[in-house]
Amino acid sequence: MKKYVFLSIAIVLIYFFQSFFNATGRIGADSLSYFGIASDLPRLETNLFPLGFPVVIEFFHKIFGDYFWASKILNISMVITILLFSYFRKFYFKETVLLFAGKTLFFALNYAASEGLFVFMLYFLIYLFHERFQDRIKPVSFIIFASLLFILLFSVRYSGIYIFLGFGIFLLMMFLKNHFNPLNRDFFKVILWSGSGIFAYLFFNHYIYGSFTGENLRGVPAQYYPVYILRDILGVTNVVDPFVGIKPASNSLVSLSFQVVLMLFDVMLLRYFINLVKRKKTVIDLDFHRLLWIISGVYTITVFASGYFQQIEEMNVRMLAAANFILFFSFLIIYFKNLTSDKVLFRIGCFFLVFLTFYILKMPENYFKSRKQIEPQMSKFEHKKFMFNNEERADISLTTYHLPIINKTFQYQHTNNQKGDIKRAIAGTINPQIKWLKYDTIKDKRQVLYTSEIILK
């Protein structure tokens, strides 16, 4: 157990410090959108994203007075809370620690976006279901807290409706199997109460904004080409992989070949997981794990399908974070059941924690140094209402890599290390009232802050 305690301490330190050495501080375009919504509160300007995450961010902003530190302290607080809860409640502590060595929590809790808060709540929802299956929680408490968490999940990410849908499908299967036993009655009450809460939120959105989930703001889906469909399929298969989620932006033959090889490895992992379940099905709570598998599968399929009806990102670690998190947790719980030695998996977890850290910091930059240059300049841009990265194509920085074995070199564009992206991330964090633009469509250019106007040496 001691080695997991030491690993958990290392995780807290790595999660806290690594964004300081990232050029943008792990602040992306969506982060700025969330900060913008938070800074508008209590005014309700848009429902492009639900209000849950901006409300929490604004609460932390009121305490720390800065959106970067608000997101940073929120993320590290969630890391520490899960680890302490797991340790003191004796809720799969070893498995929980190894979850943080995987790609999903590493991404979600090191990035200023709603995924971190989403999987944080999902962890406690899994706990509630586990305790109810084990009959270690009072039905009334389970119904109240599970219903509340389903509603909160939807208020943080609209894709929370897919978690709810997966639970509904599982309940239908349980009803056909056992009809209205006490467990199913509790589940049905959760469906009713949480469904009512989600419906109330949708009604609120439509009453205030005129749309349910900001569907009128997302635009039409981008035109799909076979290569993008292939990339999405490869992304979906990667949902079973707990550690490797590298997805180059390039559509070159080398890039796609790498992703196909990774897909074959993912298929092998899935086969191993299925065989593991077959070997241990008599010593695990199959209904509990079926719930996790169904929710994960439904979430994956519905997110994949929704990409063809609205403008969202391709299938990657971020889009499928919830599904990967659930599957990995299920795998760890089953793997550790009646396990004689955990040396192999512990070492794999440690290796990939180090690998992910070095992968993120492969081109380390001093975030605070860049921020120190930009912060004094922002006062002269207070009258600006919008911000546009006009250096995205004009000033491209390419990194050259050398492959020693085959003696070949190639160049790659790292989006987060481009000067325009760095300026936008830092400037938008300092003053989120300046809303970032994806396209330069504002006619009055005096209202637009162009990143080329910001000096960064």
Automatic annotation (TrEMBL):
Coiled coil: none
Keywords: Membrane, Transmembrane, Transmembrane helix
Membrane-spanning parts: 67-88, 108-130, 137-155, 161-178, 190-209, 252-270, 291-309, 315-337, 344-361
Keyword Iron: no
Keyword Translocase included in the entry's annotation: no
Name of the protein described by the UniProt record: Glycosyltransferase RgtA/B/C/D-like domain-containing protein
